[in-house]
Design a protein that fits this description.
single chain, alpha/beta, 4 domains, 5-stranded mixed β-sheet, 8 strands
Length: about 450
């Protein structure tokens, strides 16, 4: 048998030989014609290897190759294995009921404080249409129907909360008033310990609009109305507020005292002035629970005492000059986009602008400035047209941040929502005092400041 006939016979044993027509052999190579390609296109391969032919089938005719039935082959090469079958999860998709879908939509809108028109958004409805719902297709409500559904959910939640309060004996509440967009609001929360599990519970009682001036009688009336709405007048052990004078006066004027309880137990007939009792200006028309001032808000006031002390002693000049330069930088970076971009490009981070109602923000803003090397800081001051910081001013700001760092940590602990309770107050204050006093040896310009902070805490 000639070499060409032997090569042909060997080639015909290959499992994919039917896709080619053997043409000839030249030395150690064979030439074939590709049947799957249009026209008579030729392809070469080695006599003892069909890898080149298999590569052509894999690249150009993969679908035909994958459709080939499996069979044994004596060739030393094997076909490329088929791709792994993709997993189909459509049958395992968990479907939700229409009621569950409504609850999820309501939770999303309420928690993110989105407008009710969100449910009418076309893009939002497209997302909802992709959610598999049991049974028939869920009906997507418009704004009015969704508003009615939210009212029903609120009524159910309020009823459930009242049932929880009925099983409790002692409850503590908090109250606060704030202004947003020229409108005033009263917010109240309730806190309790479950008598069966000893787990702390909490809930929001109210977030209502308050009209008119925030006088003590208006505040007393609003707090009592919220307590009465949930049947808490006899269960509230204390109400916690900030140190505003209107809150303090409201509880001082309308808080039920021990002498009032003794008078209720006395069987003697007491004559009172009916006209005075029916008068709206009477200061005995409300009955408020005992009052406590917020520990974190009280601790927050230490900053004002520290500022007064700094303004009244020999450090007032350096304090004023250093903070005024910082204020100039904050103003410049906050009001000018060019200045803000310059800060971003030079420092690779933004300056923190302090907020008047949160003292921690002032400390964080100063810390951000003192984290910048003095040379780089003065370079930006020069470009801003602001007087450069002196070495003494820069050192003063650094020591100021070091001394008041324990105070910021204590405030963050006492302002916590989940892990803050009454028993953590005294340990936090003790650690704050000890760590503040331990800083005295490291200070030069503010060596007397730790004693002032500790003195204010004890007061």
């Amino acid at each position: 048998m000639s070499d060409s006939a032997e090569a042909r016979a060997c080639f015909m044993k290959w499992k994919y030989s039917r896709h080619f027509t053997f043409l000839k052999q030249a030395d150690k190579n064979i030439t074939v014609i590709r049947k799957l390609c249009p026209g008579e296109k030729k392809l070469s391969a080695a006599v003892n290897s069909t890898s080149n032919l298999l590569k052509h089938l894999t690249r150009q005719h993969r679908q035909s190759l994958l459709s080939e039935p499996s069979s044994s082959s004596t060739d030393n090469t094997a076909a490329t294995p088929a791709k792994q079958t993709k997993l189909d999860f459509t049958s395992a998709t968990q479907k939700v009921s229409e009621g569950e879908l409504k609850k999820m939509i309501a939770g999303y809108v309420v928690e993110e404080m989105l407008p009710l028109r969100t449910v009418e958004s076309l893009s939002f409805r497209c997302i909802l249409n992709k959610i598999p719902v049991c049974g028939k297709k869920a009906a997507l409500h418009d704004r009015k129907m969704f508003s009615a559904y939210l009212d029903k959910c609120y009524a159910d939640m309020e009823m459930e909360l009242k049932e929880t309060f009925e099983s409790l004996e002692y409850i503590s509440t908090t109250a606060d008033i704030w202004t947003s967009h020229n409108k005033s609001f009263l917010g109240m929360t309730a806190h309790w310990i479950d008598p069966s599990t000893f787990v702390r519970g909490h809930a929001a009682l109210a977030c209502k609009r308050v009209r008119g001036r925030h006088t003590h009688d208006v505040i007393g009336n609003e707090i009592e109305q919220v307590h009465s709405a949930y049947g808490l007048n006899s269960k509230v052990t204390t109400t916690v507020t900030d140190n505003r004078s209107n809150f303090i006066k409201a509880f001082r004027m309308f808080q039920k005292s021990d002498s009032d309880e003794e008078l209720e137990e006395d069987d003697e007939v007491t004559f009172i002035d009916v006209e005075q009792t029916l008068s709206t200006k009477s200061e005995g028309q409300f009955s408020l629970p005992p009052h406590l001032r917020c520990a974190s808000h009280t601790l927050n006031l230490i900053f004002h005492d520290v500022e007064k002390w700094l303004q009244a002693n020999e450090a007032k000049f350096i304090y004023r000059s250093a903070t005024s330069k910082c204020s100039a930088m904050w103003t410049k970076a906050n009001r000018s986009s060019v200045a803000s971009e310059l800060v971003d490009n030079f420092f690779m981070k933004k300056l923190i602008v302090p907020v008047s109602t949160r003292w921690n923000s002032f400390h964080h803003a100063l810390s951000r400035i003192t984290d910048i090397p003095l040379a780089e800081l003065n370079t930006v001051c020069t470009q801003f047209g602001i007087k450069c910081f002196t070495d003494r001013e820069y050192l003063f700001l650094k020591e100021y941040c070091i001394v008041l760092k324990p105070l910021t940590v204590a405030l963050d602990i006492l302002q916590g929502e989940e892990n803050c309770y009454f028993g953590i107050l005294l340990p936090t204050l003790e650690i704050l005092i000890s760590r503040t006093l331990a800083l005295q040896d490291e200070l030069k310009l503010t060596a007397s400041l730790p004693d002032i902070i500790v003195k204010v805490i004890y007061i």
